[in-house]
Amino acid sequence: MEVMLALGPSVCERIDIPKSRNIPLAGKDADLYNERVCSFFAQRGFPVTPLPDAASPPAAPRLARPRRLARKLTARELVSKRMVTVGVIGVGALGQHHARLYAGLPGVRLVGVCDLRREVGQAVADRYGVAYFADWQDLAAQVMAVSVAVPTCDHCALSVALLAQGKHVLVEKPIAVTLEEADEMIAAAGQAGVILQVGHLERFNPALQAAQALVRQPRFFEIDRLSVFTPRSLDIDVVADVMIHDLDLLRWMVDAPVDTIHAVGVPALTEKIDIASARIEFANGCVANVTASRVSLDKVRKLRCFHAGGYVSVDCLTQQVTALEVARSHVASAPPAIVPRAVTVTPDEPLRAELEHFITCIRQGRQPLVDGRAGQAALELALQVRAEITAHARRAGLGHWVDVPT
Q1: Per-residue CA distances from 196 to 25, 126, 156, 232 (Å)
Q2: What is the pLDDT of residue 355?
Q3: Which one of 72, 236, 371, 401 is CB 3.0 to 4.6 Å from 240, fit for a cystine?
Q4: Angle at CA 166, nearest 5°, toward 101 and 78?
């Protein structure tokens, strides 16, 4: 019996056998097969079964399944496959929600929480079945990443120390008190080669993400962010606490530098500015009116934008988007019509999406949507608004009403 083995010309040439697509494998040709063909494939990780003696009909040659050699994983791949251990430092009004969400994220293990107030920290730790740490350094020693939700005045020192230890850091907004502190944090992250993300969570609001994708050449914004008074974040004023969310959104949606700012603000229930309004004009002609309050009777989060060819309105609380477009007729005499545009939004908790993004950046080794530079840009605009509020108060003879930065 004769068995035919089909080999390409290039293979035939490499193993020094006649350049024929079909090689007869009977009699003495079986020795040629065993000596050259089997050797050729075996050296390349494909061992084949030698033909039996020519006296007995040979079985059809059978290629054995190649043995897969385990490839050594890179450091990034190891991180992408392992559990990401996290901790939360500061579990007050916002930090406790970081702990809540980390505890439920897949592929994430909340190791513990830290807070100067033992009773507060222990209560949150017990709620999610994790450890309470009185010293942040003890917590940092057991985790890969940390959420920092402490008073703004402590953001820089704590974040720099964590970054220097090689920990990935998500720090709540504002990134710091001064631009110089922000620079120090950014440099520390770069030197350590770790992630620094700033907690501007409205970037992860699905309604605002949908709106941002629709806005083309924005011309005018009207933004209102009003909150009922709560005794939290009183170490900073309403500009750094509340308005900064919308200042970051403007930086995100308007591709132009700020030209001029007019702003006014007054304290109401605290010694710092509690209500503020700013009119911001950009170099490309876009104008934004932004109002922020932390002493209102109702909670309002609305953004409206007129842009080239349309209008977008966003309710950040209900995550609903209304979009209108200008449809122009092909008939020259026909007036343009305003038509609604359907916008699909899949509801999600922005903070959950923000934390998930943080973990994804750690796994993939990429920069976050809101990195240190983005956080610094939002802080810079907030400081400019605050400076204009102070200047207006002085011109109006109301300097004693505002907290003048030193």
Answers
A1: 66, 28, 12, 24
A2: 98
A3: 236
A4: 70
Per residue in 332-343, is it b (16+ CB within 10 Å) or e — as a string? eeeeeeeeeeeb
Tell me, yes or no, whether 163 lies in a domain.
yes
Q: How many domains does the chain have?
A: 3
pLDDT digits (tens, 9 = 90+) for 100-114: 999 999 999 999 999
Report which listed range, 234-248, 265-279, 329-343, 369-383, is most confident: 369-383
For residue 398, the one-letter residue type is: L
Q: How far apart are CA 22 and CA 9, in angstroms?
A: 10
SS3 of residue 55 by DSSP: coil
Q: How far apart are CA 376 and CA 360, in angstroms?
A: 22
Q: Are residues 219 and 340 in the same domain?
A: yes
Asked, for residue 363, whether it belongs to a domain, the answer is no
Q: Do 300 and 313 form a contact (C-beta atoms < 8 A)?
A: no
- In one letter, which amino acid is 117? R
Residue 61 predicted with pLDDT over 90: no
The rounded distance, in Å, linking the Cα atoms of 220 and 177 is 29
The three-point CA angle 226-231-235 to 5° equals 90
Enclosing domain of residue 277: 203-348+373-401
Q: What is the pLDDT of residues 280-322, one digit of tens each?
A: 999 999 999 999 999 999 999 999 999 998 999 999 999 999 9
Contact present, 110 and 87 (Cβ < 8 Å): yes
Q: How many CA atoms lie within 13 A of 284 on its CB side?
A: 15
Separation between Cα atoms, residue 15 and residue 405, nearest integer Å: 83
Q: CA–CA distance from 263 to each of 41, 240, 292, 377, 388 (Å)?
A: 78, 14, 11, 18, 5
pTM of the complete model = 0.78
Q: Domain ends where: 166, 199, 232?
A: 199
Contact 349, 105 (CB under 8 A): no
- The length of the chain in residues reads 406
Last residue of a domain, one of 49, 69, 89: 69
How far is residue 258's CA from residue 252's CA, in Å, rounded to a whole number?
13
Residue 38 lies in a domain: yes
Q: Is residue 365 part of a domain?
A: no
Looking at the fold, whether 207 and 154 belong to one and the same domain comes out as: no
HSE-CB for 267 with a 13 A CA cutoff: 15
DSSP string, 265-323: EE-SSSSS--EEEEEEEETTS-EEEEEEESS-SS-EEEEEEEETTEEEEEETTTTEEEE
